[in-house]
Amino acid sequence: MASLRHIISILVIVIWSQASANILDQLPQESHTLEGYHIDSVKTRMRQAPLHNIEGVWQFLDNATTIAIERINDNASSQYLHQYIYRIVIIKPQQLSIEPGTIMGYISATAKKDHYEAYIYTDSSLEGILSIPQKFTLTLSDNHLAFNEYKTSVSINLWRWIPYIYRVGVSVKNTRPKGLDGCVRIYPQPTSAPLTPRYL
User: Fold this and answer.
1) 199 assigned to some structural domain
2) Does residue 134 belong to any structural domain of this protein?
3) Considering the entire predicted model, what is its pTM?
4) Which of 7, 13, 175, 196 is 20 to 30 A (C-alpha) from 82?
């Protein structure tokens, strides 16, 4: 009976993983570039309508790459991205081969306030084309946006079928806290706390 439950659990996980993969397959496997995409035009466009909490211009703390997060409102994107409300567009890349206007990924809201799901391209070619979209969770706190890669794993415990004397357990744990990777808002200008800590 116990082994049957284990088999059913494994099947459920495999089916769920396959469903996630199908969603991923709906996205373009490579990024494309929006022509004439500049920070001044982005700011002008954002000034013309009320912004959602996550919308704005953001800068990554580790490499100073600047991105825009904005609602998708063009018909071409809505054909295959109806569940994605926002897109992430690179304005000022760190890598010189990546052009401004390159789409970095897509974001959708979740049922939890200030928590989002995103598919982000995680690899780039020498020509500056982004590829290999992966799933992330995004958490918005004040004017900081934290990125966490969404990971799933399937483990099968075979030790129960081996005599006790041969059982050896190995456990690896990553102690680095989540939420350390991300970016800060630079537009609209935050009116509350400073973006970077001030030390006395």
Assistant:
1) no
2) yes
3) 0.70
4) 13
